Structures are given as structure tokens and as C-alpha cells.
Amino acid sequence: MGIRHGSKIQHHSKPISKIYLIFILLLLIFTPRVDSSWWYIGALGARVICDNIPGLVNKQRQLCQRHPDLMQSIGEGAKEWIKECQHQFRHHRWNCSTLDRDHTVFGRVMLRSSREAAFVYAISSAGVVYAITRACSQGELKICNCDGHKRGQASDDKGNFDWGGCSDNINYGIKFAKAFVDARERMVKDARALMNLHNNRCGRMAVKRFMKLECKCHGVSGSCSLRTCWLAMSDFRRTGDYLRKKYNTAIEVTMNQDGTGFMVADKDFQGSTKNELVYVENSPDYCLTDRSAGSLGTAGRVCNKSSRGTDGCEVMCCGRGYDTMRVKRVTKCECKFKWCCAVECKDCEDLVDVHTCKPHKRPDWLDIT
Ligand SMILES: *[C@@H]1O[C@H](CO)[C@@H](O)[C@H](O)[C@H]1NC(C)=O
Ligand SMILES: *[C@@H]1O[C@H](CO)[C@@H](O)[C@H](O)[C@H]1NC(C)=O
């Protein structure tokens, strides 16, 4: 793009200074800043080496060095919450896609204070709570175990039960997530830092919200007259679904005068923002590729011709139209149960139409050479 642009400029009267200006501009746009985050741990997989993760602040680097086993869990957990984020936004223009070998992980979208950033901060800190709590219970970590504080008898709507010794240690998960994830934002005092801290907390609490009682029955022939129970985390999908709903109802805020808290932008808002996601900046429409806004655009995205929702071709393609391809699809069919015990199927082929969004038209000035 730069080269074509440059050659166009050369027809003008003062080529050198203009080319120079554009060069500086391109440098400013593409020079990586220290925008990276602990999220990058997920991309490193098993090779977590604390000094090699750009964007860890000192406190995080110390925690990383002191607890390599926890970092391992956080890294594995990152793959899961990123997948959950992509699942929740699979039908949206912004789809939570990550950029390979990019330290910002999600691109520059996270430098903004948008609704999408709010969601990513919340689900990522929820993901850390989940990963660490689970690793504690599985005995994978030196520093924590499952929670044995609950002892003796208790009761629920089904009657009395005995506490088993091994509940999920969510409080440890929350404590560590808070220390590690929040460390970066605690060093800054601006609207974005406040917003991130708030949404991080929402994420941590979301996991706790879905703790449930799990029980094992004892007693004569499984009569369940005696039960041993413990508190366990629900599937991470519950947290994902919950935060996705919170994304829909996220609240726009502005920082108050003395910089210690928010004000809700909507004067008519009643109630508390405590358990709501908050954002400061409106989102771009994510229709076009705009790296500075962190938008990949929707060219080439698959859309649903008959849907009126966000996955519909009209909305997804931003009115640019779509291409249709007829593709062969292979499915299992005519499955028969074979005695005993297998299911045998045939491979059936049919043709389905796949619609993908058209690319945006190049602006006219790019075609002048
Ligand atoms: C998200 O959208 C981008 C750009 O439109 C596409 O390249 C990418 O494959 C999508 N990612 C996922 C996880 O669907
Ligand atoms: C497309 O959207 C329609 C209407 O919302 C829905 O019934 C259908 O299952 C969708 N098709 C696919 C392939 O997702």
C-alpha cells in the first residue's frame, strides 16, 4: 500500500517532503509499542520463560518466576478462555480472533476501552481463576490444594450431608488471579485502568457465582441415605454464557473528576454497576480492516443468508454483499446398529451453499498509478 501511495505522490510538486511525512506516519502506525500482555503466556504453551514474555510488569514477572507451575496452568487456561471467547462471538463481526506471533494477542482492539475489551478482560481473568482453581484441586500445584475448610455436617434442600474434604479452592484461585492479572492496571491511574480492574473483578466473581454442590451417595444399595458433598466449579461455558450476556448489557461510563471512580454516562441509569461490565469508548463497527482500531474486517467471513441476526449476511457483510459457493459436504448417514456393539454408517455427500462476505471495494485513490 505504501509503495503505490508513494508513486502517486511523486507526481506532485514537493515529492520528497510528502514521502517523508508518509514514511513517518507509517512508522508511527506500524511500530510495535509495549502493548503486550500476560495473555501472551497462552501462545507460549509449555515454554513459559518469564523473561521472554514482553509486557509482564515487574510484579507479574516476580510471580511468574516464583510460581512456574502456576504459569503453566495459566497458559493452558488461556487456550480455553480464548476458545470460549471465540465460541461466544462466532456469529459476530468481531469474533475474538487472535493474531499469530503478535504480543498484543488480540491486536490493537484491546488498546481501546470498548465493550469488546471489557469482555476480554473479564473472561481472561475468569479463565485464570478457573485454571488455577482446577489445578489446585488436581494436586498439580505446590502452593495450593483443594479447600478442606468445610467440615462436619450441613444440609441442602435434599437433607443432611457430610462435607467431603475436597472442595474447589476458588478463593485461592481468585486471590492469585487478582494479584497476577490486576498488577499491571494497578500501576496506572486512568479511565482505562479503572475500567479493566472493574471488569477483571466481574470476571473473577462470575466463576464463583457458578459454584455448585456435587455429591456422592452412600447407604444401603445406593439409597442415598448418606451423602458426601463438596463445592465444585461448573463448566466454564456457564461463565462464558454469563459474561456474554453481561457484554450485551454493558454500561458506558466516564471517569469522575478526581479520578477515583466512574460515573454512568446515562443519566437515567438506576442501580449499581457492581456486577456489570463497563466500557468507556464506543466500538468501531468492525466492518473494514482497520489495524489501528484493531478491526480485521468481515471480508471472507461465512454468513447465514436466512438469518436476520448478527450472523446474517446483511449484517455480517455490512451491506457489501456476499459470494456463494456450492461445496460438497460429507456426513454420516444410514447408521445401523450392529450386534454387538458397534454403529456403522455410510458416508453421504450432499451439496450446500456457503456464503461469504465480499471484500470491501478498494478506495479509488489506490487505483491511480
Ligand atoms: C474471525 O474473522 C477473521 C477475519 O474476518 C477470520 O480471518 C478468522 O478466521 C475468524 N476467526 C475465527 C476464530 O472464526
Ligand atoms: C441460519 O439462520 C436460520 C434462521 O435464524 C437458522 O434457522 C439456521 O439454522 C441457520 N443456519 C445455519 C447453517 O446456521
Automatic annotation (TrEMBL):
GO CC, sorted alphabetically, is:
extracellular space
Q: What is its main location?
A: secreted
A biological process from GO: canonical Wnt signaling pathway
Tell me the domain of life. Eukaryota
Keywords of this entry: Developmental protein, Disulfide bond, Extracellular matrix, Glycoprotein, Lipoprotein, Membrane, Secreted, Signal, Transmembrane, Transmembrane helix, Wnt signaling pathway
Q: Which Pfam families match?
A: wnt
Q: Which residues form the signal peptide?
A: none
Q: Which GO terms describe its molecular function?
A: cytokine activity; frizzled binding
Keyword Glycoprotein in the entry? The reply is: yes
Cite the CDD domains for this sequence.
Answer: Wnt_Wnt2b
Record-linked InterPro entries: Wnt, Wnt2, Wnt_C, Wnt_CS
Q: Summarize the protein's role.
A: Ligand for members of the frizzled family of seven transmembrane receptors.
Under which name does UniProt file this protein?
Answer: Protein Wnt
Q: What is the lineage of its organism?
A: Eukaryota, Metazoa, Chordata, Craniata, Vertebrata
